[in-house]
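LOG
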Amino acid sequence: MARKDLQVVISRRQETVTVALAGEAHFDFAASDEHIQKVLAHKPKKVLVDAGELTFISSVGMCFLINLRRAVREAGGNVKLRGLQPRVRKVMEQAQVIGLFEVE
């Protein structure tokens, strides 16, 4: 099966920054930090991670979400996950990461 590279689109609407993830989350740490800095540049009160098009998440992808959550919380905001596909949700549950997030 061909690997679908991760697409990350960051947008802002009023006080909410949306991070749309599509494809397979095979992050490297440098890219992860770069995306977090782009989100923080918006000084968000709310970050919505739209994972409806995310088909796979690696352990580094989960680290990205945890580090994003930590950085946003330190800046006074919160992070919510939306649209988790069953496969991604199951992996996050097995890694005991899902409980860190509010999930729609």
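LOG (cont.) second protein
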Amino acid sequence: MTLSSVLSPERARALVRRFHSMSVLVAGDLMLDQFVIGRVTRISPEAPVPVVEHDHDEYRIGGAGNVAHNVRALGGRVDLVGLIGRDEAAGRLRGGMIASGMGVDGLVVDPARPTTTKQRIVTTRNQQVARVDFESDAEATGEIERALIEHARHALAHADVVVVSDYLKGAVTRGLVQALVEGAQARRIPVLVDPKIPHIDYYAGATVVTPNHHEAETASHMRIRNDDDARRAAKVFIERARCKGVLITRGEHGMSMVDGSGEAHYATVAREVADVTGAGDTVIATLALGLAAGAALPEAAQLANHAAGIVVGRFGAATVSPAELMAEFASSETRA
């Protein structure tokens, strides 16, 4: 079934108003997004590449940090558990988190690895020229993994929902996810996972996993061309991941949700696409707050679909405010 509206503006407003009292535990791979911004006025005589004349740098919280940033922007409280190095990037990440109202108690320092950093060279017209990654993708082990699990269990005691943000950068281990799922089940709160397919066996017991359509195709060994394909792929994904539900983000084709109660498909509400960076982080942050606030999964998915429609119209990893979400929802209802 394709849903144009399962959620009235009044119900959506009531759910969003509850966001401020919800607490989200986000565990996963933290990143620092650095944008080296400048102007291109010529091609290098040394090689056929543009020469970027540096103007300024910008820094943003990325990865699991962007999920947490989205939760904060939507009014929710957040505890963040993840890995950083002992370097300048870690200091910038800490500073950005504090400025955004996030606690830093859940940061585990691993001096053997750099803080994951994505350095993008970008023109003043928002055209990306190149990207340089500073990272170690070795999984946390030993004392580092035990510290992550300890911080996660401590934060879990007062969380209303758990989000695992997996970017394959080392923080998400089988032991960490197992501890989160077991702790959440004991407290009867949902666990949401933004996955990476090499870790699909880690996510057993999760409430909802949110692959994009490429990840869903890879996990299911199926092509997704329409809603029926998405439904079949989602069911295979559920079997493989041993999770309870799946929400597939499908770009311009919207989103598809399948769980034990049925299925739903949501057309995209984006009117303009500038940059899809971080859209999945916005989806899972909104979905988590919606479920924590008492929404059924189809309702939370519709809120997430509207939030994604806003952020893809902005450059870089963007966030959405409660007022913007409600305005977009209301205007979309009017257009429908």
